[in-house]
Design a protein that fits this description.
By secondary structure, the chain is of the alpha/beta class. It has 12 helices and 16 strands. Strand 9 and strand 10 (167-172) form a beta hairpin.
Length: 387
């Protein structure tokens, strides 16, 4: 009966916490009125969510003056708030400030251009300005890999040193060989909406994420130290972006440190090859990818929030299927266990498998987290009830 009563009339600490869309010009009187109205409806918490249509400049002094009005009013009302760590969404950018101020922090994917070399005993020159796309980034490596019966026949030879003035000149021994030029491709968010035309942040880069937290979390903590942990209880991170094949300027060094060998001769295995060696390379790549996301992004948010006396919560990018886990951030549990309150995005009723909330609950059980969180109702339609 006690459990039934608590579900029927839960303590205020377990209130629904709606995304409170902060847009237009933020007016003190209207913000106070909205908080009063929330309390009348037994809504005791809210996520302070900068949203499209915002006219007050995000992260400006005017923005933080409005946040001060919110937290002071919420404190008087016995309510609480969460920080939403981005504008508008796809966390990690601080409204694109991080990649715009630091181009080296722009998220990247790894791509390649290939050709098959058959003739032996000849020298060839390839103009990379002609063969590679205009929007390509820096060249990561040039690798020549032997073929046998059309399949990769072992690791390749690193020929990157042969690149001179955007041309690569090679002497072709007995063939056939696969020549592959691996290069960075700048990446935007994966949704194709109008916010996808701007660069997002490389969240595998520790320094990039540090720049993000300094612009957001640390700024809230500096301005509202008396409210951190009381009126401001958590920071919500939302669908942090990832690329496919995920890459970072730090990746090759991190791979060598963690697995003890150079990835460059084996890069072709990220695209092809079914040998045990090829499968091991892909597993090692996914292992490093997932470690970097878990440590550089989610782990850094966890530590940052702890240092300010608040909790970290939110959810991953497209966590709805195991395939997406591997495709984007590598290892669901590695990242999710860094949340104080593991969360999910359950916005398509009937279309998201039940394993998604179960996995979030499993993270909480395995790592001793008190609560789980679900973002719900965004795309459910008006007929979808709380029940």
């Amino acid at each position: 009966m006690r459990l039934f009563r608590e579900f029927s009339d839960p303590p205020q600490d377990f209130s629904v916490v709606p995304f409170w869309f902060l847009n237009e010009c933020l007016d003190d009187g209207r913000l106070q009125w909205q908080l009063d109205e929330m309390k009348k409806q037994h809504v005791f918490g809210a996520v302070m969510h900068a949203r499209p249509g915002l006219i007050t400049e995000y992260l400006s002094d005017e923005w933080f003056a409005a946040i001060e009005t919110i937290v002071e009013t919420a404190s008087r009302n016995g309510m609480f708030t969460w920080i939403y760590d981005e504008y508008p969404w796809h966390s990690g950018m601080a409204e694109w400030r991080v990649p715009q101020l630091h181009p080296e922090y722009h998220i990247r994917s790894l791509d390649r251009w290939t050709t098959i070399l058959h003739e032996a005993g000849t020298s060839i020159t390839i103009d990379l300005r002609v063969e590679l796309p205009e929007d390509g980034g820096a060249i990561v490596a040039v690798v020549v890999t032997p073929l046998q019966n059309g399949q990769l026949a072992g690791p390749g030879s690193d020929m990157t040193s042969q690149v001179k003035a955007d041309r690569v000149t090679l002497y072709v021994p007995d063939g056939p060989f696969e020549l592959a030029v691996y290069y960075e491709r700048f990446f935007h968010n994966p949704y194709g909406d109008r916010f996808g035309v701007f660069p997002v942040t490389d969240l595998m880069n520790h320094e990039a994420v540090k720049a993000f937290t300094q612009l957001t979390h640390a700024e809230y903590a500096e301005r509202f130290p008396d409210h951190m942990g009381s009126t401001i209880r958590a920071a919500f991170t939302d669908e942090p972006p990832a690329a496919t094949l995920g890459w970072s300027v730090t990746f090759l060094e991190a791979f060598r440190e963690r697995h003890g060998y150079d990835l460059v001769p084996y890069l072709a295995y990220l695209w092809e090859g079914e040998s045990p060696e090829a499968q091991k390379v892909r597993l090692d790549y996914g292992d490093v990818l997932s470690q970097l996301y878990a440590e550089s992004y989610f782990g850094q948010l966890e530590s940052c929030c702890e240092s300010f006396g608040i909790e970290s919560t939110g959810h991953l990018l497209l966590e709805e299927t195991l395939l997406f886990h591997v495709r984007f951030m590598g290892d669901y549990f590695r990242s999710m266990r860094r949340f104080h309150s593991p969360g999910i995005d359950y916005i398509f009723p009937g279309r998201i498998p039940a394993v998604v909330p179960k996995m979030a609950a499993s993270v909480a059980n395995l790592y001793g987290r008190e609560r789980v969180m679900t973002e719900t109702f965004a795309l459910t339609g008006w007929g979808f009830t709380f029940q």
